[in-house]
Amino acid sequence: MRWRGVPLDVLLAVSGVALDLLTTAHAGDTTYLPAEANLPMGVLAGLPMGFVRSRPVPVTLYLAALLVVTDQLGSYTSNTAQILLCVAVGVAGFRSGRRGTVLATAAAIAATAVNIADPGIALTVNSWMYSVLLPVVPAVLGAYLRGSADPLEERDVTPDALLAAGGVAITVLSTWTTWHSGSQPVWVVGLLAVVGGLSLGVARRLPGLVLLGQGVLLVCADTYLNEAVNTCVILTLVSVGVFAMRVASWWWLVAAYVAGCMLTAIAVVGEGTEVTPFRVGVLTMLVATPIAIGRYLGMRQAAAAAERLRAEEAARAAVAQVRADQLAERERIARDVHDIVAHHVGAIVLRASAARYTAPDGPVADALTDIRETGHQVLQDLRDLLDLLREPERQPHLLADPTDVVRESAERMAAAGLVVDLHLDPATDQAPLTARASAARIVQEGLTNVLKHAGPGTRVSVTVAPEGEGLAVEIRNGRPPTLIERLPSSGRGLAGMRERVRALGGTLSAGPDGEGGWLLAASLPARSAT
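That's the histidine kinase sequence above. Prediction below.
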């Protein structure tokens, strides 16, 4: 992981050297350096760019010193050093803290001022402005890209489309009659007007970049196309308002306000304009208005987001409360069912046990023993059901292995009079416990239904075999041997089996097999449906 960014650092270093070699390829001798020195000077200027991502401030200080030295030596490498210095300042603004950025920017301003000043000529106001703005702009841009505005979470692009359409409408309708009056070709002016308007479409997502771009367009319009200055001022103020809406930091709001005042002053204040306190107040209020509106809208959006978050938390809390109430009600119902059923089943078990000791050996004794064992199993199942209703997420505890439950059910139904052919694949032991437990319950319920509706003497084929990672259960009974009186049934056995299979994401079918018998088939996947 430490070496993952090395190719990018190497590319930056090579690009820096290549940039200097391209700019000094045809440069000859200077007063202090021969032409052969261009290559080592290019290496000295470009190689440090390989460390600009990890050590931006030291690289910036080095390039500032190199710029001063190359300027004094008259080397053409000073042009490359000036360009790379701005890049390094931007990286310092992005990766370094406030102190490091201020130090790097101050060194870049001083070196740029030395580079601009000609020997014997004092620095003018314009030169100072250029010396300050040239390093400050990339530093501010880098600091902004570090994370001044939070990512826009909403996916609705309607406001963006409206901003873009409104921007294009303003720029085109207010400037198209003057596109031919400037020194630039008509298509260039028209393209800039359309691009300037369309850029508002991404102002909510990239507020700082759009504000910077609108400022550049305003300065260009003030220089080359005065008729479009007012339109650019409007776009700039809109960008300032959107920036204030998206950025909550007061430091950035102050920076946006100062930048808006400066840009508006460039457009409003001319050579013959008299600067009065009233006009200064109007200009400051003009810039403060979109900032106030944008900040108000930003606070409204933040409040709405906080309200949505509170509503979501309240909804989750309500769902959790309902879930807790449901679990409490389930536990109460399960306890009541357990108490009622266990009382009666316990009485049956006790009476069967007492009768077993007084009854002679034979079929009656075997029936009483079966009643007693079945009663014990019912009581254990009731306890397991109560535990499952208390904690639905936990796996149910099985007193016996599901395979043994299937065999015991087949033997019990055979003792009751059914002719049972059991085909139990040994590979079913590798299936998940939930599928095996459900298969056992389906076999129990299916054989019970055959005994109820077809009667003793009916031949039944039971097959439990693997199917993929789950199990397949098939219970097929033939035609009843004689007409019998059907036992009473609630009709809930088949519905319960369907619900059990559906919980696992499987399928169940039941119906006549076309030969006078009945077929029950279930597919039990390894995992529950999501």
